[in-house]
Amino acid sequence: MIKNLKSLISLLVVVSLLSIQVNGYDYCDVLKKSLTFYKANRAGRLPDTDIPWRGDSVLDDAYPAGTKDANGDGNLSGGYFDAGDHVKFALPMSFSMTTLSWSFIQYESNIEKCNLTELFLQDIKWGTDWLIAAHVSDNEFVAQVGDGNIDHAYWGPPETMKVERPVFTISATAPGTEVAMEAASALSAASIIFKTRDPEYSATCLSHAKSLHKFGDTYRGVYSDSVTNAQAFYKSWSGYKDDIVWGSIWLYKATGDESYLTKAKADYASFGIGGMAQGNSFDWDLKAGGCCVLLAQITGESTYKNDAESFLNYWLPGGGVSYTPGGLAFIRQWGPARYAASSAFLAAVYGGDKYLDFTKSQINYILGDNPLSISYVVGFGDKHPINPHHRASHHSTTNDINNPVNNVYLLVGALVGGPGQDDSYVDDRTDYIKNEVATDYNAGFTGAICALIDPTTTPVPTETPTSTPTGTPTETPTSTPTSTPTSTPTSTPTETPTSTPTETPTSTPTETPTSTPTTAPKDSLPLYKNGLKSNFQDWSWGDHNLADTSKLYNDATSSISFTPQHWNAIFIGSSEAIDTTKYKSLSFYINGGETGSQKLSLAIVKNGAKLMSRDLSAILDKDLAANEWTLVTINFADYSATDKVDGFWLQDINGEAQSTVYLSDISVN
């Protein structure tokens, strides 16, 4: 009997090891290293020497000035340095903590198999402790510590850094909805994790989450308009609508309060979150894809499942996203590995063989299944980067990025930006596009690794508490602003990455020749004439203004101004509001502004997803004219539009900043 029992135990151990080590990769080892990276980026007074080359730093970070924590250090001394620099940006830090917590909630049993529960929780709590400290009052939150420009002029370890570190806050008079909502999400998710482990801490997290959610929703505004120092580093390109829905979903998961779910679903529909997700990434700026996946799991409703699958299908081979020859999904050149990893995480959470296959392919590419046979995780595998763009591990004592030649210390577990679109890569510290590291880079990657530890594990259901706790109900949201400020972004920095929404193709369409518009019926439905009409809504992302008066068509009193850049778009829509059996065409006037020749594409949208897009220059059969109003007319039939559609978007396809264009008199006929 004893002999048989020993044999059974041995068999179970072998099976467990086989599940953890797939394709030759020890995913437990990868997970441990990824979690260790967060320890290397800790700020403040360190409680251990797990990273022996790191010491106490920035102990005077505080707000209000001079405020101390229990250790006598500045109350904001903790938290995480953002990337290879030493600024604390609350938006990506919060996103990282939300994603790590979601990973833990979803794959706790896999994490336990690796004996990494304690390390995982330490990493989360180090971040959420700082978020709690940063919430200095109900309607005030610290969005950033350190001036990015000052910080980036210093190249050395944080322990010896002596530069001014200003504090930037959001408040009722300087709102920052994205940051407030992302912090609320992080603290809500953490409250779920600590509910049975540390009930008092869980309650503290949840209390701050509720307050931050109310603050962010009541005082709506784009955070980088209030914290202008962030614009060159973490500008909010997508706006705050996705963050509002994201925060409401996480509070519902943490509380079971139906009012949060009701709000999330209503805002999801009115903000066009499903459409916002399509052809995009899941990252610190844009949470729309995550909203789709979470609501699909929570409700099981077809609307969210369709949106989630449309988002994920874009990332599959042939779905629209570009691929390197070696097999990495490549949506942007700046840090492509983090985008592929984050989408791989969402694919695993959603589940299904084809999505799990995608997760495996992307993570295994990152770990070494690529043409160079290199691991893009520092310290993992036989061949990996040793010179990431990271001040502390380089450890220069001369304020020189090139001295010493190689990094003094190994930044174990850090995911670097990744290869070029041709699979090329050079381990060059000065190449921040391919070799920068960041807390948000590792967040989605960590989640995907958790899933692969045992792919047969059934993920923890995203069920919410059955009882609704007492407390203040969710506040009714204030009205959505009708326009977004039209300030032109600062130039892309030379060190810290700025991530932006991407172009949103779902497939490469067969071009349909421009044809003479079908004779229109007498009825006409206005979408925009001196403002939005017929209950159409502004679902745009990027810099635009629905009430611009600088360029007007004929007797109009206002127009839409739109500054194309970073694949942003004007998106005018209303769910299934345009019946293409009645209305045959879309028309509007557009002005090319100061330069003309902007690179734009026009897409028709149905059920939140793009049917087809065509270059505007192909539609016009010429470049867009400068300072001149041009009529654009397209037939719905040329876009394979049948039955009812939502609307259209006009999107930047250049990537770089272009001059402002203007739209007027939009209608379907």
Q: What percent of residues are in strands?
A: 5-15%
Tell me the name of the CATH class of the largest domain: Mainly Alpha
Shape: globular
Number of DSSP helices?
A: 20
Number of beta strands: 18
The helix content, as a percent range, equals 25-40%
How confident is the prediction overall: mean pLDDT? 88
Unreliable stretches covering 5 or more consecutive residues? 5-19, 461-522
Briefly note the structural class of the backbone. Answer: alpha+beta
CATH architecture of the largest domain: Alpha/alpha barrel
N/C terminus separation: 82 Å
CATH fold label of the largest domain: Glycosyltransferase
Which tags fit this structure?
669 residues, alpha+beta, Glycosyltransferase, Jelly Rolls, 2 domains, six-stranded antiparallel beta sheet, five-stranded antiparallel beta sheet, 20 helices, globular, hydrolase
What does this structure look like?
It catalyses: Endohydrolysis of (1->4)-beta-D-glucosidic linkages in cellulose, lichenin and cereal beta-D-glucans. Residues 27-448 form the Glycoside hydrolase family domain. The chain is an alpha+beta fold and 669 residues long. The chain folds into two domains: 19-226 and 236-453, Alpha/alpha barrel (Glycosyltransferase), CATH 1.50.10; 525-668, Galactose-binding lectin (Jelly Rolls), CATH 2.60.120. The chain is built from 20 helices and 18 strands. It has helices at 2-20, 27-40, 90-113, 117-134, 148-152, 177-194, 199-218, 223-226, 231-234, 241-255, 258-271, 273-277, 288-299, 302-315, 336-350, 353-367, 391-394, 432-435, 439-453, 616-620, and strands spanning 21-22, 25-26, 88-89, 140-145, 167-171, 322-323, 329-330, 525-528, 537-538, 544-548, 559-562, 569-579, 585-591, 600-606, 609-615, 629-635, 644-652, 661-668. The strands form five sheets. Strands 8, 10, 11, 13, 16 and 18 form a six-stranded antiparallel beta sheet that branches. A hairpin with a 5-residue loop joins β6 and β7 (329-330). α4 (117-134) crosses α6 (177-194) and α6 packs parallel to α10 (241-255). It is globular and about 75 Å long.
